[in-house]
Design brief:
Layout: E1 3-10, H1 15-26, E2 31-40, E3 43-50, H2 56-63, E4 69-73
Antiparallel strand pairs: 1-3, 1-4, 2-3
């Protein structure tokens, strides 16, 4: 069964940033699809789908660094 985790992320301000986050998330075990929505009020919506259930802690760890911050889960 496919499971999708949706989070809001601050710091995705350019295509290079988005590319870095996409690469990091694709390296999380079980993730097979990542979509990044447009920036709205400084936040981007990121959808991560995978099998089995995607681990939210692993998603947050993959995205968190000095530039990107998971703001909340949608």
């Amino acid at each position: 069964m496919t499971h999708t985790v949706t989070v809001e992320v601050e710091g995705l301000t350019c295509q290079l940033c988005i590319g870095e986050v996409l690469e990091r998330l694709r390296n999380v075990g079980g993730v097979f699809r990542v979509r990044v929505g447009p920036v709205h009020d400084g936040r981007s919506t990121v959808l991560v789908s995978g099998e089995p259930a995607v681990n939210l802690a692993a998603v947050k760890a993959a995205m968190t660094n000095g530039q990107f911050h998971v703001v909340n889960r949608v």
